[in-house]
């Protein structure tokens, strides 16, 4: 029995030595600057969420990330159950939070009441497919060129950690997350990953919102964003390439989660994923158990490089 059952991932918070440099990358990746406070920058996607990325001035490191509480009462239940206070958020968007520490020492904010903006409309044309070949009848497909496609939302964060089991247990027991797939080095051997989704009952949610993955040291492995569609993943691959950024892995399709993916490093070497078309599961879905050689593979596309597997930053 967990203390509460949280809602989806809401934002990530980092400190960087040059805020403008990383903000520029994120704008070109598809995020939209929406607010500034002092030296901090807040960026959003097109879904109606005030911000999904915070950059602060400071040494390069991950500070933490946030999940949404389902109601204010849950926030107060969490505060009582953890001995923490409910704090007012004095940043753009306002709201309330309970700030926790997960086993690797990163802040996990559980928030409620942040201002909800209007969604940003992005016009996308229909796609003619084999089963529905006339969705765009008499209408040529014309994609925007020479610019980023705004991303839809933040989707998941992956932490490298030597404490896979302890970290996964903390998120299950504190925030009510459910394991979609568990990955072990060999059958009955060391666990190397736990794909955790939020519990929203009968509602279907992303295959994972948080993933602890085996690493010698704790740190940021990657943060992931849903693109508007598969065309956006492909077009933005070429746009980021034209901007001279470092491509890390992709394009391919994962087995676990099934996303069509593409990974890019920001100027500090922190990995960011574009994806489209993920598995969606309800709370009743069973947990898959895999050996790494069977589960941590692509359905098509090249396998993960050594650089990707070891791309863990503080």
TrEMBL record:
What keywords would UniProt list here?
Dioxygenase, Metal-binding, Oxidoreductase
Q: Which SUPFAM superfamilies match?
A: Glyoxalase/Bleomycin resistance protein/Dihydroxybiphenyl dioxygenase
* Gene Ontology BP annotations: L-methylmalonyl-CoA metabolic process
Checking InterPro entries in the record gives:
Glyas_Bleomycin-R_OHBP_Dase, Glyas_Fos-R_dOase_dom, MMCE/EMCE_epimerase, VOC_core
Has UniProt tagged this entry with the keyword Oxidoreductase? yes
A Gene Ontology molecular function term for this protein is: methylmalonyl-CoA epimerase activity
Residue span, VOC domain = 153-277
Q: Which Pfam families match?
A: Glyoxalase (PF00903)
Quote the protein name from its UniProt record.
Glyoxalase/bleomycin resistance protein/dioxygenase
Q: Which organism is it from?
A: Caballeronia cordobensis (Burkholderia cordobensis)
Q: What is the lineage of its organism?
A: Bacteria, Pseudomonadati, Pseudomonadota, Betaproteobacteria, Burkholderiales
